[in-house]
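Researcher: Next entry in the queue.
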Amino acid sequence: AGSYAMPHGGTWPGFVNMQVHHNWLENAAKYGINFNDQGSVKAGTYSGMIWDNVIIGTALPPLRINSTQPIQKLWFAYNTLYNCMTTSSGSGNGYVRSEGWSAQSGVNNVFYNNIFSFGPKTVSGTQWFANVGGTLASATTYSFKRNLYYANGQAPSAASTIGDSSALTADPLFVASTSSNFQTQSTSPARRS
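Model: Structure for this entry, 193 residues:
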């Protein structure tokens, strides 16, 4: 991306305007959604919208961004992540894991109105956000707003430490997570007005 000459002329910018939505992703051996470009020339773009997905039971982080592209504009909203991180991945145990060039000025990845809920198989020590490798993300390059966080008896860092000052920390009150019904009950804090 960013260096490949297209047959019709011009340069391929990268993976732009991707849309990942309305999927059920369950029990992945590694990640749920994984943006990864190892070995690239580091001159392109990632952009896209990821919304209304249910991601459950991933062995590793359900959302992984291992990109070295200087322009990243990924928008994650209205996703439900439950009972993920069922195995340890060392220092990178997080529901969202950032790797790569996360501090570049062209990075603007946002996470709004998602439900991040630990489950009975979420490994101890899991965090909401694992900021590892490369150049680390900041509140300028990774923005968390209005997400609901449920630690299910664990003690991760507060959502405010990743900049989510409007976070809700509460049980999302799923109808029946044990039978994979992740609709929220009428009294759920996720149904705020």
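Model: The mean pLDDT is 93.
Researcher: Noted, moving on.
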